[in-house]
Fold this sequence. Notes:
- The complex is a heterodimer of chains A (251) and B (270).
- Chain A has 251 residues and is mostly helical.
- Chain A is 69% helix and 0% strand.
- Chain A folds into 3 domains: 4-84, Rna Polymerase Sigma Factor, Chain: A (Orthogonal Bundle), CATH 1.10.1740; 91-159; 169-249, Winged helix-like DNA-binding domain superfamily/Winged helix DNA-binding domain (Arc Repressor Mutant, subunit A, Orthogonal Bundle).
- Chain A is built from 13 helices and no strands.
- The N and C termini of chain A lie far apart (49 Å).
- Chain B is mainly alpha-helical.
- Chain B has 2 domains: 4-52; 68-268, no CATH class.
- Chain B has 12 helices and no strands.
- Chain B has helices at residues 4-16, 21-33, 35-52, 68-86, 132-152, 156-168, 175-183, 193-200, 202-220, 223-227, 229-237, 254-268.
- In chain B, helix 5 (132-152) packs across helix 9 (202-220), helix 8 crosses helix 9 (202-220) and helix 9 packs antiparallel against helix 12 (254-268).
- The longest helix of chain B is centred in the middle third of the chain and has 21 residues, at 132-152.
- The interface between A and B is large, with 49 and 59 residues.
Amino acid sequence: xxxxxxxxxxxxxxxxxxxxxxxxxxxxxxxxxxxxxxxxxxxxxxxxxxxxxxxxxxxxxxxxxxxxxxxxxxxxxxxxxxxxxxxxxxxxxxxxxxxxxxxxxxxxxxxxxxxxxxxxxxxxxxxxxxxxxxxxxxxxxxxxxxxxxxxxxxxxxxxxxxxxxxxxxxxxxxxxxxxxxxxxxxxxxxxxxxxxxxxxxxxxxxxxxxxxxxxxxxxxxxxxxxxxxxxxxxxxxxxxxxxxxxxxxxx
Amino acid sequence: xxxxxxxxxxxxxxxxxxxxxxxxxxxxxxxxxxxxxxxxxxxxxxxxxxxxxxxxxxxxxxxxxxxxxxxxxxxxxxxxxxxxxxxxxxxxxxxxxxxxxxxxxxxxxxxxxxxxxxxxxxxxxxxxxxxxxxxxxxxxxxxxxxxxxxxxxxxxxxxxxxxxxxxxxxxxxxxxxxxxxxxxxxxxxxxxxxxxxxxxxxxxxxxxxxxxxxxxxxxxxxxxxxxxxxxxxxxxxxxxxxxxxxxxxxxxxxxxxxxxxxxxxxxxxx
Lengths: 251, 270
């Protein structure tokens, strides 16, 4: 392993980049103010720990800047888990798609007001829905205990009528079938579909990140969705329901 | 259990485009199995897009895609390189491996940010069972990187100097020279490459240094580099033909050349 002095010099020479990356990660996850400052300090501490062990593990298979970006992205997840516990989106949110999942996560896990969460999503380019539309979407989600104090938002949630309670037992079973079918896909196809439909990446971004041309990627996604539908149908779900389920992914 | 930092570097390599098809499939499969890895990939891709701009302006690292040039050159190298150069009664040129950097047009070349373009999985050659030839090739390549980093004033020069020291360590009587590389804290303290070349083998160090400089030239589409007397002589001896985009007389296929040089350096240094 490289000498400590070498690693320290490397850390110091990339300190500006580390801070920029940490800032970008914070913006992406709606962390600001004290949270962002705490995270930035925590990241630097992690990189300095054990005589710059993280930097010492760098093998040169990638550029150092990209390596640091991925490392800090991983650290961000660890930071959120450490501070706010493990988070799972509700079945209702998953059913309603990636915007609902992200909205629920921003409000209940990260503690944003609804209007703040809406602004984060629009800033990220994830959606163009208005505050009212997002509030209606949010009102249809189950109420969950906040993982940190939930501030009162600009728009009272009580102003948005809640939908009637419907027995969603059948729908939950179908949803579970979808996720079981997803797990049966080859890992590569699973990763691509997750990127597209659960992590909200555009085709262009997926293509760029994986170094693939877009046209073959479109075809690959279509084939993966077709296979997903076959697995869902093979589990006893009707063709009509399976098509509706897969179709919702694209909404 | 996989070290998360192994995942991090593999994901980073995927984003940089420096994996071959098989490696890319392995990492993609890993993303399909690990939500943690997937989220890191998604976040990192988004941050890179924000900080570095669109893909059209973000330089991609070379991929280890086999090309006819690489395969032919690689096979030819194994079969004939050492005897061919061994028959030369004089070194290929003056004894400084860094001289090939001076052949690059628009010198001094700016050392690419975060460049660490060695095709080997590690430069920690002190513990790795390398042949003398492979070690000399690696030293030559790193001496070119060192010259570029020094010229650019890039602080990476000290890390690269450390790499050179580690590669020198197993060579008998190299301890004083390796120590000088390690101890350097200013550009002027970094030793010239001639001593390292003499210890590791001038001809192979020169070859490694030239191939690394050629990679920079190919990245820039620098035809002047390949037209120089020194480059023509080396390409003749390897042998190495510049791939064309079509029939003879057509422009050089720089991407194919970059891939070929990457593969060549990888094979020679392994």
